[in-house]
Amino acid sequence: KQEQYRALRDRPSKTRDGADVALMLNAGLLVDLPHIRETGAAGVGLFRTELQFMVASSMPRTAAQQQLYRAVLDAADGKPVTFRTLDVGGDKILPYMRAEAEENPALGWRAIRLGLDRPALLRTQIRALLNAAGGRDLRIMFPMVACVSEFDAARDFVRKEHARLVKHGHPLPSSLQLGVMIEVPSLLFQLDEILARADFVSVGSNDLMQFLFAVDRGNARVATRFDPLSPGFLRALAHVVGRAREAGTPVTLCGEIGSRPLEAMALLGIGYRSLSMSPASIGPVKAALLDADAAELAAFIEPLLARADGACSIRPELKAFAAKR
Ligand code: PEP
Ligand code: MG
After folding, report:
1. Could you give the C-alpha distances from 241 to 100, 192, 249, 251, in angstroms and in order?
2. Of 5, 139, 213, 242, which shows the fewest CB atoms inside 10 Å?
3. Over the stretch 65-99, which tens digit does the pLDDT of each residue have?
């Protein structure tokens, strides 16, 4: 199988009916980067910057952050990399950062909330990113945005750090794109505002599922209780991709559901054309998509999503459909 997947590496990532689908990697450490070449991925759709912070025994300094980001861009061979700012707090506790115990860490003081309340931390990271990307394209994405004003505030930090570089005559990124993770359900009802502001968005289906269904993604007892291949969840995802397309804002999905072939085909069917996933999934997902017909998938899935019988999963139907091909 591995050999088979490797043989697909240089095949254009297209369905049988010619729909281009960008397959990208989720990464978090420098050692993940060679997978771009091994898998033929279109780039890094999600670089989880918190990994560097979580494996360190003290807060990584600006220079260390900058060095990592530069090395990542070097290793990406000119392919796009989307750096997500620190997603710590809640259950991703940094041993060297004092944190109060929280009763509901997933709903707590984490990610962009922590970054906006501790501007030195977020601005240092932004500075490191801007410096690392001198002369190259830079994409920065903010996690756990729940309200449009949080993106505005984060964007303002970037603007200030950018102005600082200009003032000191430092090299600037050749382009700068700022994006938002769609992973807190409140954003589903502020899509027009967020899509008008962001250069791109990326659906974090892991957290979106956790918050929409109120299931703790880390609690094995309930984590798989509900199927992401349910009309309810897929309607939410379809809503995002539809609005993004109308707004002309690029949209990717970078949660785990894009890593599984059947789920990825459902995402194709509802209109996603860019997925970011764990490196080992690129081969299997690519094999499935080379064999798929996007228009056929769309026609198959549309009535399944519209049906009103209260079914909580359309997995059996999708499986049967996939098996027939
Ligand atoms: C997500 O929430 O789907 C996501 C991609 O981010 P993380 O898994 O790091 O929370
Ligand atoms: Mg998340």
Report:
1. 37, 12, 9, 7
2. 242
3. 999 999 999 999 999 999 999 999 877 888 888 77
Q: Which of 82, 205, 254, 276 to mutate to test the pocket of ligand 1 (most atoms within 8 A of CB)?
A: 254
CA of 208 to the centre of ligand 1 (A): 9
How many angstroms is it from 151 CA to the middle of ligand 2? 16
Residue 308 alpha carbon to ligand 1 centre in Å: 30
**Residue 294, SS3 per DSSP:** helix
Say what the ipTM of the complex is: 0.99
Q: Residue 27: what pLDDT?
A: 98
Bigger pLDDT: 6 vs 235:
235
Q: Is the pTM of this model over 0.90?
A: yes
- H or E stretch including 181? strand 175-182
Q: Tens digits of per-residue pLDDT, 162-197?
A: 999 999 999 999 999 999 999 999 999 999 999 999
Which amino acid, residue 29? Answer: L
Ligand (nearest to CA of 256): 1
Tokens of 152: 């505005």
Contact 241, 266 (CB under 8 A): no
C-alpha 103 chain-centroid distance: 27
82, 95, 91, 183: which is closest to 133 by C-alpha?
82
